[in-house]
Amino acid sequence: MRGLLLTAVEDCFxxxxxxxxxxxxxxxxxxxxxxxxDGTHVGYGECVPYGxxxxxxxxxxxxxxxxxxDFAAGLDRAGLQLRLPAGxxxxxxxxxxxxxxxxxxxxxxxxxxxxMAPNPITTAFTLSLGTPDSMRQAAAKNAHRPLLKVKLGTDxxxxxxEAVRAGAPDxxxxxxxxxxxxxxxxxxxxxxxxxxxxxLVEQPLPAGADDLLAGVTRVLPVCADESCHxxxxxxxxxxxxxxxxxxxxxxxxxxxALAMLQDAxxxxxxxxxxxxxxxxxAMAPAFLVAQQAxxxxxxxxxxxxxxxxxPIRYDGSTMQSVPAELWG
Length: 328
What we know:
By secondary structure, the protein is of the alpha/beta class. Helices cover 32% and strands 23% of the residues. It has eleven helices and 14 strands. Strands 5-6-7-8-9-10-11-12 form an eight-stranded parallel β-sheet. Strands 1-2-3 form a three-stranded antiparallel β-sheet. Strands 4-14-13 form a three-stranded antiparallel β-sheet, with no helix packed on it. A hairpin with a 2-residue loop joins strand 1 and strand 2 (24-37).
């Protein structure tokens, strides 16, 4: 691709209420929107810089704009994988290139990537961290949803899950400890959570403490999130985690995410496809990866008070096909 014009801007979207995890609360999200234009067609991408990985909106925009001359000189998707490391900046650019290629060719991204035509999928719906009573109320409000994801990672987690189960007796529950537990807490909580119908826990231990899981009987399957970024991280997780969470803001785009999916399956990992709290533009490429995943956690737009002008339609927790006007 030659002569591409690059833009990168910050966009803010309000959260519906507040979104709370063990690290803090947010009432809005700050995302970076990227465009790549050849003068006729425009490709779009979105990323969500994440402070946990040392990213800021300003820093990510600076990194993206540093590639402007490269794109003007013909940088393509393969070259981008070498030009930038995995992370939010590369994700937005990679997804914009896929979108641009689809518009130029008149073929959808799933076809360009050699995938099957996508079908609607069920996404988890996230309950923010709160008091047991507030989480019971939130669970009851969303008890009709088949899959609930519960944010944990502080003292009182067992009481919270008991409250969520009381509020949503029939839903499948997955929990996200956000690196907030110790091995001893996992060993104490896991059997009880299994009895309460919890199917999975994400990242119970801090990233970097993965070796502690190697000698633990994992009665409750464990999913790597903060410990898992791209294909290079998979080998070290073998025997310590049962599932890995693929997020495009970690992999650095759809290109790496699809390759990572194949490698993870070959290594025997289960797969969850998740995302940061983003808009429909961020969910669109992840939707394609999630077609082959055991769990999808792509509820970002459901947690916002305002989405993109042409959003993905959700029927309850069922994520429908991506509008061509949005992406891909």
